[in-house]
Design brief:
Elements: H1 3-10, H2 13-19, E1 25-27, E2 30-33, E3 46-49, E4 54-57, E5 64-65, H3 67-75, H4 79-90, H5 102-127, H6 130-139, H7 144-149, E6 153-155, H8 161-167, H9 173-178, E7 182-184, E8 190-192, E9 197-203, E10 209-216, E11 225-227, H10 243-253, E12 256-258, H11 262-270, E13 276-277, H12 286-293, E14 298-301, H13 307-323, E15 326-332, E16 338-344, E17 347-350, H14 359-365, H15 367-375, E18 378-379, H16 380-389, H17 397-412, H18 417-431, H19 435-444, E19 451-453, E20 460-462, H20 470-484, H21 488-498, H22 512-526, H23 532-539, H24 545-554, H25 562-597, H26 603-629
Helix pairs in contact: 1-4, 3-4, 11-14, 12-13, 14-15, 16-17, 17-18, 20-22, 20-24, 20-25, 21-25, 22-23, 25-26
Length: about 625
Amino acid sequence: MSTIDEIKSRIDIVDLVSEAGVKLRHAGKNYTGFCPFHDNKHTPAFVIWPESGTWRCFGQCNEGGDIFKFVMKREGLDFKDALQKLALRAGVELKEYQRETPEIKEAYDHLRKLLEDAVVYYRTQLFNNRDILTYLREKRGLTDASIETFGLGFAPNSYDNAMKFFTQRGYSEQDLLDVGLLTEREDTKRYDKFRNRIMIPIRDEQGRMAGFGARIVDPNDIPKFLNSPETPIFSKGRILYGLDRARKPIRAADQAVIVEGYLDVIALHQAGYENVVSPMGTALTEDQLRLLKRSTRRIVLALDPDAAGQKAVLRGLDAARSAMDREGELGFDARGLLKNEARLQADLRVATMPDDLDPDEIVARDKEEWKKLIENAKPIVTHVMDSLAAGQNLNDPKVKNQIAAQVLPLIEDLPSPMERDTYRQTLARMLRVNEGALMSTQAAGPVLRRRPRETGQRPQVEMTVVAVNPRLKIESYCLGVLLRKPELLYRLDRKLEEFGLSPLAVEDFEYTDHQLLFGVVRLAVQQDEKEHQNFMVSHLPEAVDALSKELLAQTETLEPADDKLLDELLARFLDLRRAHAMLNVNQLRFLQEDEQQQGGANLKMYQQQAIQFTRLLHSLDQAKRKLSRR
């Protein structure tokens, strides 16, 4: 989740607008009030849609936007200043973005080239060592094709082999230190970091070399696994091993499986299960789960059956709960005040490994068994209940209380009221207590991370809530494509004009950050002094630089040819316009009803707006039919 998205998730637009002095009232799922940006106080033409976190004035302003646009217009700020102001309110730290200069990029490319050369070096050492090759083939069951595909190698049992090899080829010792191939003692003596270990190249999600994982050969050596140290291009909490090869299979299966070991990943890929990845250690991080979230929300944890693996499952719960997007669920508190209760939007399950076997051992025993294990993975709440109850005296009231205290917060994260009710009943039966006792336990202590704050009007509760809005996803995808292929914009404009529709404009995007990015794309294709990408890099507002990189990363593996991609983009923009028009038509119906009750002074204006949007809907539907026949 980007910094901008996190700020949006923590600030309720209804609260923000209310605190600006706008009196709001319910109108269906939405809110209406008098627009704070002009003097007409006769008709409540200002509308807020809490689900998308956006607002619009149907009166004199005829403007709209999100929380950033509201603050910008209300206080006369630019986007950067509004971002800083709202970040402070949301308690989100803004990290100053430092652009990657050509010099830094060149330095990083130099480190990656050294790592690629190291892959070749270690692979040569492996094929010169018959014993290690035999171990990988016979003990681990790996084929030569898998060994080659994953670039496995071997670090000889020497303190300076790698150092001599690479310094003789022009690399400096500092290069080797920077990339993590050398280590330095307190007396400044330097030596090879990896010795007598199987070397496993680790690549980032884009397939670029980042570091190595190294497994022992001698069972007496410690630790069993040794990773590259943190470097400018390697951070073990931000990489998932095998993701560069697993991204497409994960999307195809709409499911990701997380295992604990590098060799587990290789063995499973070899067996045809290519939607498998591994973290850089037992503890899952938010960044790793966010990488997976780009491809799927269905995640199975299939960690080793030992104690460390089981603890990793439980440690991963908090990371999973905070990394996945959340969707608002409307509910009323005792005072009748509207709340937005965060419910986890993901399907997290746990596969139990039988007979104390590791994943690679299971697939070696029976490939079909692995498939069944994943299919039978338990919902994570069920797994936690079973794990916490195993070997415990469930007749002990303190044990019951401890289990309930850990399970109830997870139940409250579930998106469906029916699921929550079902799991409460299951927990009550397991603990052999009355469900009412569980509910009273829950009420006695907080189960969501909340922080009270004073607003001067009423005590409130702040919680992290990310609105999962389909429009947001579509806008993000379309922008990512245009940032990567800005030349498509002219072709899109021509196609829209052929359908009798207006060219794309910033108004086609609801979110202020998206509008800023699209504005840069539009300027880039309108000028002819610079190459499009170079122009965008030099003119991109710093405040949305990180967002642009995230959107580009999401569209990095575009496969359709330009013609097919153009049709796909066109269809999505037609859908965006249609959704926007429908939303406005429906809202104008409410406004017309209110206006009739107030005397009807602005009724004609609302009717004309409704007619315009209705005609637009007709044109969009015609365009969509023509597009589908092509």
